[in-house]
């Protein structure tokens, strides 16, 4: 038998997922995350943050022709407590350099 549950009633029984704010910070432009993301846990938030940093860096390369790895990412909870923080270079692997 299929049981239909009102969505409002269902919300009373399901625990809410935590909200993680992923702030990308560097010397040229910051990307704050005031709304945050509903994610299962900190590990998933870290993976989302890594993807965000990679996208941010790619945009900076295309826009400015520059790769600036001096920035960092802060992952905060909904109260503003920093749960994790890592530098940009943790999000990428640099392989080789052109000979000068």
Please describe the structure with a list of short key phrases separated by commas or semicolons.
100 residues, alpha+beta, four-stranded antiparallel beta sheet, 2 helices, elongated, 4 strands, single chain
How is the topology of this model organized?
Blueprint lengths: L6 H7 L5 E7 L11 E2 L3 H23 L7 E5 L5 E6 L13
Antiparallel strand pairs: 1-2, 1-3, 3-4
Spans of at least 5 consecutive residues whose pLDDT stays below 50 are: none
Question: In total, how many beta strands?
Answer: 4
Mean pLDDT across every amino acid position = 87
Can you give the helix content as a percent range?
Answer: 25-40%
Organism: Sphingomonas glacialis
Protein name: DUF6894 domain-containing protein
Domain DUF6894: 20-88
Structure description:
Residues 20-88 form the DUF6894 domain. InterPro entries: DUF6894. It comes from Sphingomonas glacialis. This is DUF6894 domain-containing protein. It holds the Pfam family DUF6894. The protein is an alpha+beta fold and 100 residues long. The chain has one domain (16-90). It contains 2 helices and 4 strands. Strands 2-1-3-4 form a 4-stranded antiparallel beta sheet, covered by helices on one side. Strand 3 and strand 4 (82-87) form a beta hairpin. The longest helix is centred in the middle third of the chain and has 23 residues, at 42-64. The protein is elongated and about 60 Å long. The model has no long low-confidence stretch (mean pLDDT 87).
């Amino acid at each position: 038998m299929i049981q239909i549950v009102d969505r409002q009633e269902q919300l009373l029984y399901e625990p809410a997922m935590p909200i993680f704010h992923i702030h990308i910070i560097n010397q040229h432009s910051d990307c704050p995350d005031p709304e945050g993301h509903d994610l299962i846990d900190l590990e998933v938030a870290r993976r989302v943050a890594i993807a965000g940093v990679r996208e941010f860096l790619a945009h900076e390369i295309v826009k400015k022709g520059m790769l600036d790895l001096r920035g960092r990412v802060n992952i905060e909870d909904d109260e503003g407590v920093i749960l994790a923080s890592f530098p940009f270079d943790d999000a990428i692997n640099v392989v080789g350099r052109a000979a000068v």
